[in-house]
Task: structure prediction
Amino acid sequence: MTERPKFTVALIGNPNTGKSTLFTALAGVRQRVGNYPGVTVEKKLGGMHFEGRQFQLIDLPGTYSLAPRSPDEMVAVDVLLHRRDDTSRVDAVLSIVDASNLERNLYLVSQVLELGLPTVVALNMTDIARSRGLTIDLERLRQRLGIPIIEIQANRRIGIDELKRALASAAEAKPTERRSPFPDAFQAETAQLQTSWSANGKRAELPRYLAERLLLDTSGYLQDALANDEHNGVAFEEIKAARGRLSAAGLPVPAVEAQARYGWVAEVLSGVVTRPAKRPVSSSDRLDRFLTHKLWGTIVFAILMLIVFSSVFIFADPVMGLIDGWIGSLGEFVGNLVPEGPLQSLLVDGIIGGVGSVLIFLPQIVFLFFFLAVLEDCGYMARAAYLMDKLMVRVGLSGKSFIPLLSSFACAIPGVMATRVIENRRDRLTTILVAPLMSCSARLPVYAILIGAFIPATTVLGFLPLQGVTLFAMYVLGMVVAAIVALVLKRTLLRGPTPPFVMELPTYKWPSLRNVLQRIGERAWSFIYRAGTLIFAVSVLIWAAAYYPRNSVEVSETLAPRRDALAAELEKLPEDSPRHAELSEQLGDLENEIAAVYQRDSYLGRAGRWIEPAVRPLGWDWRIGCAAIASFPAREVVMGVLGVIYNLGGDLDVGEESDQDRLGTRMKAAVWDDTGEPVYNIPVALSIMVFFALCAQCAATLVVISRETNSWRWPIFTFVYMTTLAYLGALLTYQIGMRLPAFISG
Amino acid sequence: MTTLAVLPIGESARVREIDASDEIGVRLLEMGLTPGIEVVVIGTAPLGDPLEIELRGYRLSLRKCEAARVDVEPV
Result:
């Protein structure tokens, strides 16, 4: 049994202040990550000990201001004011502040102080402040703020014990009302609103901070959020009137808040921070000039993106091969221990295969987040968004969507996970929903087989290889459709005001290895822990659908007896006789045929046959339909499924060219059951490629989408819209293709 | 009357007024673009938008359409 945490501390701070580094420094790597119900905000909890006392740490999302305008932003306020049942009452607030940027950071501190909770300020990045020639009179700052201020260096774990001590005594202190920084007239209106609010019926008391926010929030969000009260109409009339009075008194809402708080900040900091008369040009400034330069900045960006992107391919691929090999050997090992039958298949193909289907994504996640963590930690991530913003605005998104979408070309899973940098919910959702349209590496083998087998190795326009052009076209198709879908989503389902692109471009600094490793560990663990179990379960379910019912009459009455007879005959022959080799080849073929019959008769195979009328207009026979359905767990399994269908067995190696050729040859030879005409021609091959370019046949991506959006609605939406587009795309491709005379001859 | 959006690169100016009628305006205020504060335009992204400015000792990025609601006067 774990001890109940005695105190709860909430950690809050601006983005880029080292907040998550501090969180890990305090709580260690054991963190509990989940979601707050109903919103897409990550809920991160950790434990902390100090002198025998237990603390629970809540990490609140990084923010510049505690002014909720959306349910996601409301979470922090609700946690701090204990308006949520799913978190404990906060005993103390830890506010992390960037010493090199005190003015803006104290804005948030000024809001936090008004909550009346005991507060400790952690002053981080004093080294950067010093390098800029800033001197901070800490003693005077402590006196002015009246709260403990602890100098720390989160990435070097300096000052952490002192911080814990300050938190321990703060958590035992009583909440105290602090003087409001607002002008008297505004304070009077706030007080009046509080009084009339609680005077009306059985309303709960309105905290001062919320009363202020109600007056300030002209977006109407907060009114609606607090409107679960029958008398709200009256109160809201009052609020409107109060705003009118304030405005007439020269205190326009909402501008009065920034004026009041920055005024307070200026008072607090006067004589505390001294800066050199002329700001020295720092190395960060020079670097920034280069990295955001029209020409050099673009070149460096392109090279960086190329490195990130190709390393995910180059480094992750061998590791994925290794994992694949281990899983295969483990399967073989277990397969030898357990006699053939449902149990063996469940263990080998269901369970071990299912574990493999989770682990196989780890190399890409680890490598991608290694680079993203480095870029983030050194301050380049914000620049990448800055450089690409104008491009992404054209599809209704912002520069922050660029890297997640680029990552999705390797794999949509880390891509979707990388969207957490996008604070705006609608932008983030749009990015998540179109990310799976980027042509990920799992689509490559599908393209490779079909292009190799059916697209002639000629050139177009005299010099462009047609096969390469076709491959390129598939990538372009994904991007174009993604752009259109993003635009449509931003105009329909996810319509809303354009979110501001007003963000800090942080000072460049050396990335800390510890931070980077921690970030990778966090992401990998969160994938295994939150998505892995479900991906595993889906894999086992799909295995069962592809395995059962296993009661084919054809197998039991004709194929199996033939196999047994063949095996018996083989036993008697000497191993080196030519007859032995001939018979074992026959036996192999027969076993492949049995596998093919079982697969055709499995529930999955039946589903494939059942949808044949639907896929015929795409030029597909039931085998292709079956393969498309069976590849739901992951696109790359289509190779194995087709291998089984075409009696080659399921052990085809996607990466092996000889195996691709073998499969290609079988596909070329495939004929329609009824007419005997060849199934495959160029339009059919293209229609399959287009289908796989646009479909959502990747259970793991859908699971990750559900985890990241905290709902099942969005993965289902993704699956439905992508499958519809894939079907229509394949239909158009085939129908148009068959009407172009150049194609029919093949 | 000029706005931050049209201020030449390298130029400093003082904020006069901000249209704070919506979320973007409020965000600009929260980030410290309050009347009276001095800003310097550092540059633009290679595609011409957004802008990089410096204020209160830190660097901020904002789009031109957002900068257009910030009225400034030269110092």
User: Anything to note?
Assistant: The domain at 2-74 of chain B is CATH 2.30.30.90 (SH3 type barrels.). Residues 23-30 of chain B form the longest helix (8 residues).
